[in-house]
Amino acid sequence: MALLLDIATTAALLFIVAAGLFVIFGVLKIINFAHAAWLTIGAYTTVLATGMGLDPWLSLPLALLVGGLLGALTEVAIVRPLYRRPLDAILATWGLGVVIVQLITLGFGRDMQMPPALMGGTVNMLGTPYSSYRLFLLAAAVVLGVVFVLVLERTRLGLNAQAVIMNETLARALGMNTGRVRMITFMLGSAIAAVAGVLLTPLSSVDPSMGISWLIGAFMLVMVSGTSVAALALACLCFGAAQVLVSTWVSPILGSVTVAVLCAVMLRLHPKGFARD
Amino acid sequence: MTDQAQSTPAPQQLLTRHGTGLIALGVLGLVLVLLGPLFLDRFTLNVLTRSMIYAMMAITVDLLWGYAGILTFGQSAFFGAGAYATALILTHVGGGAQNFALALVLSLVLPMGLAALVGWLSFYHKSTPLYASVISLVVPIVLTQAIFAGGSFTGSSSGLVGYPTMKLGAANYFRLAGVALILFAALSWVIVRSDAGRLLVAIRDNPLRAAYLGIRTQRVQILLMTALGGVAGIAGFLYANAGRIVAPEIAGFGFGTQMIVWTALGGRGTILGPAMGAIGIDYLGAQLSGAMPYLWQLIIGILFVVMILFMPRGLAGFIPRRRGGAPVPQLGALPDHMQQRDSAPLLSVSGMRKSYGDFVVLDGIDLEVRPGELVSVVGPNGAGKTTFLRCLSDGTETIEGRVLLSGQDIAGRPPEAVVALGVGRKFQVASVFETMTVAECLRLARVTQERPSLWRRAARITLPRAVLDILSLTGLDGKLSEPVSGLSHGMRQSLELAMVVAMQPRLILLDEPTAGLTKAERTLIGEVLIRLTRDLGYAAVLIEHDLDFVRQISKRIVVLHQGRLVMDGPVDAVVNSDLVRSIYSGVAHD
Predict the structure, then answer these.
(1) Mutation to test the B interface, candidates A207, A247, A257, A261, most B Cβ within 10 Å
(2) For residue B352, what are the β-bridge partners?
(3) Residue of A nearest to B127 (CA)
(4) A261 — contact with chain B (CB < 8 Å)?
(5) Which helix (H) or strand (E) holds B586?
(6) Within 13 Å and on the Cβ side, how many CA atoms surround B152?
(7) Which of A24, A80, A93, A98 is the best substitution to test chain B (most B C-beta atoms within 10 A)?
(8) How many whole angstroms separate alpha carbon B203 and alpha carbon B215?
(9) Residue A39 in contact with residue A194, Cβ under 8 Å?
(10) Number of CB pairs < 8 Å for A and B?
(11) In the 8-state DSSP scheme, what is residue B587?
(12) Residue A253: which of B130, B148, B302 has the nearest Cβ?
């Protein structure tokens, strides 16, 4: 039972962490290397907010705001000029990530921070006591997934985003402001990543380089999922399960690269990944 | 027999003026690294030794990224593999000459094997550059975790230290690293300027055209990655010996990205730039990072972003690029190659059906083409003509039915393998190499027939006489050293046709070769096609809209309509048929 719950909540965590990257990759077709930095910024928002005596939960909206603002700035200053040089855009976002991590290091030092947890305690799940926070993450991931689908299917922004995903040139030719769609998407993706950073604080160590360890897994999950939310959820579940099993039965160190390796092999053998064409 | 046999061409002068300058620079560099230890203090000596090893790594990244277009974060993995192979042997087996030899061999062979595996993972038919980059991220991370998981065998997170190393002394390690760097830089410099080096750039700029020239692009990329993996391994061997310590970080993703920073700041696509970038940044970093560790990283990060945004050519961008150093190559003629005119069909299509989900593009196509035939495919837009050509030239397209070329089924063969069966394809929009000259494009069209040299540019390009005719008729022969990007639309179409014919295929597929051409250019291409098919026995399948043009040049026309082959016959019968009239006037729908 505990193992099943571990799998479900690990998948939820992977989903939450990958979500911001997924949004940006789907619409802009670039891998946002600054993703790790957004996660870190989110986590340090918690450090800062709780340091000022605010309730830890308040750091969620704060991170949303900070992430969104920084995302918008980044899109305008760095991503937009490199629209026609996608590999360079990847590099520039990575450079930005380095800059942000160094700034955080200068401000807070290299040491690990210990912000108060959002939620403590355990819940009794069919006779097994289980961390209530991890269960909360599961619920959060489900909500996030449902919101994604609703936004994509039911709102104007979602429809515009779908148009850009399918055929950006045509969308622009039809008079759609694709530049705005790209900017809003990047902003949203960054904001979601920052919130994910807040949600990570009780589970992960909070230090300037914390984002990197989550980055690769998130990349690979997005690569195998293409532009489908369902595929991302499925990928998180499958590879999350693999990660938990390898960590439990083989070695936690190898468990940490399970997701990346399995995704890489899957892409080689079946390039479409979980996405249907 | 080719003309080449009668007049052996003099190899192109290797030492252009530019070249002489660089050789002087190389000699100066050698003098500096050999005499350097006399003037430098020990700390500087050690730092610079490391910097020069790093500079070798920067050159490998540059060859992959700057020249071949493969953005890699994973060169550190091969470096780490070499360094760890060395340290592990020396730690667990011990010092002694034979063990150093063993370590050297292993630090070459293991990274090469790993690189070949990574290459196989990264490059396959229809793989994307982004995918290769992502794989290159995974490799160092996996390797680092493996080192962590190795416990006391690999030293885990603290690495290996205190193993016996070659007793050369700091001064000689400095000299060794310097000489290795200069030799590798010189070798790279020669190779990127050779015909083989241009091949790398061609694959970077237009992989599709390269594949349709019969170049096995993925194999070239895997070979390059394997070779450079070996170089990285040797650099790792030097590092493990000179530094006397190996730590997991040297195999990691952070170090891999560091190399990209050196390359980007120094100037990708040059050899000297990345080497200087690595030495400069590493040396300055060693001097400054003690005083301000985080600030130094911050400055480098900001500089990197600014460079990528505004100066993609890096610091080398400040040096004006010299153009037109290479003299115009001469053209030589291969005698016309008469194709065999047996009556067996060269191309035989039976029951071809192609669909995307429920949408059927082609259905029930049967067609046979014999040597010497010029078959025109006509039909309205959306009839499936271009899809048809693609299915004839790319066996990885999923179709029902069979396509046989000279009796061989093309199913499952990627374009380069279909080209090897004797097919040349000309695209609707001229697909040539934009950054190259006309002569370089023509040279590349011959690489499958004549192996490109690794160390020089051929001074002479031998081409089939039919190609020379195209060149002289269009005036391209006077523009051999001009870049393709400056050619007119008609010239590009002619150049692509010349490239396709230069491969000496048995079957030429042409997708609207006359679209957008002037009347004169059109007549000219028509004459060339007639000569190729009627006189020389090539077979050709031509997609064309212009019925007048078709009437002039071909004897046989097939009509594609709504994915079906509705007519196949002599020109007049087809052109004057009610069906063709009604299709083109848009009446008939059955």
Answers:
(1) A257
(2) B365
(3) A271
(4) yes
(5) none
(6) 1
(7) A98
(8) 9
(9) yes
(10) 94
(11) -
(12) B148
**Inter-chain CB proximity A90 and B127 less than 8 Å:** no
**Number of C-beta neighbours around residue A196 at 10 A:** 29
DSSP B533: I
The pair phi, psi for residue B14, each rounded to 5°, is -70, -35
Partners of B312 on chain A (C-beta within 8 Å) are: 85, 88
How many of the other CB atoms lie within 10 Å of CB of B78?
A: 35
pTM of the model: 0.88
- Classified as helix, coil or strand, A272 is coil
Query: For residues B549 and B562, is the Cβ–Cβ distance under 8 A?
Result: no
What is the spatial distance between Cα A145 and Cα A109, in angstroms, rounded to a whole number?
35
CA distances, B493 to each of A213, B431, B472, B517, B574 (Å):
51, 8, 14, 9, 28
Using CB atoms, which residue from A81, A87, A91 is nearest to B129?
A87
Q: Closest Cα to residue B269, out of B180, B184, B204?
A: B204
Q: Which one of A86, A105, A264 has the shortest CB-CB distance to B135?
A: A264
Backbone angles phi, psi at B40, to 5 degrees: -95, 145
CB-based contact B121 A95, cutoff 8 Å:
no
Q: How, if at all, do strands B423-426 and B460-464 pair? A: unpaired
User: Cα–chain-centroid distance for residue B160?
Assistant: 39
Locate tokens 């994915």: which residue?
Answer: B563
Closest among B393, B385, B397 to B420, alpha carbons compared? B393
User: Are B294 and A106 an interchain contact pair (Cβ–Cβ within 8 Å)?
Assistant: yes
Q: Residue A39 has which token pair?
A: 């996660």
Measure in Å the smallest separation between the Cα of A242 and chain B Cα atoms: 16
Question: Between residues 196 and 225 of chain A, which touch chain B (CB distance below 8 Å)?
Answer: 212, 216, 219-220, 223
- Smallest CA–CA separation between B309 and chain A, in Å? 7
Largest distance between two CA atoms of chain B: 92
CA distance B209 to B502: 14
Whole-angstrom Cα distance, residue B426 to residue B431? 8
Distances (CA, A) of B208 to B88, B318, B425: 43, 33, 11
Which residue, among B438, B453, B332, has the nearest Cα to B11 in the 3D structure?
B453
Dihedrals phi, psi of B493, to nearest 5 degrees: -60, -45
Please report the residues numbered 88 through 147 in chain A whose beta carbons come closer than 8 angstroms to any beta carbon of chain B. 88, 90-92, 94-96, 98-99, 102-103, 105-106
Structural tokens at position B385: 């003509």
Tell me the domains of chain A and their CATH numbers: 2-112+128-269 (1.10.3470)
Torsion of CA B271, B277, B279, B285, to 10 degrees: -170
B382: DSSP letter: T
DSSP state of B40: S
| pLDDT tens-digit profile, chain A (277 residues) | 778 888 888 899 899 999 889 888 888 888 888 898 999 999 898 888 888 888 878 888 888 999 999 999 999 888 888 888 888 888 899 899 889 988 988 888 777 777 777 777 777 777 777 888 888 888 889 988 888 888 888 888 888 888 888 778 888 888 778 888 888 889 999 999 999 988 888 887 788 878 877 888 888 888 888 778 888 888 898 898 998 888 888 888 888 788 888 888 888 888 777 765 4
Which residues of chain B are within 8 Å of residue A216 when distances are taken between CB atoms? Answer: 137-138, 141, 253
Closest by CA position to B285, among listed B311, B309, B313, B255: B255
Residue with tokens 């949408």: B359
| Pairwise CA distance, residues B570 & B557, whole Å | 6
List the structure tokens of A166.
Answer: 């399918």
Contact call for A82 and B308, based on CB within 8 A: yes
Q: Which two tokens stand for residue B8?
A: 């052996």
Q: Using the beta-carbon criterion (under 8 Å), do A86 and B130 form an inter-chain contact?
A: yes
Chain B CA closest to residue A25 = B130
- Is residue A256 within 8 angstroms of chain B, CB to CB? yes
Which among A92, A251, A264 has the least Cβ separation from residue B121?
A264
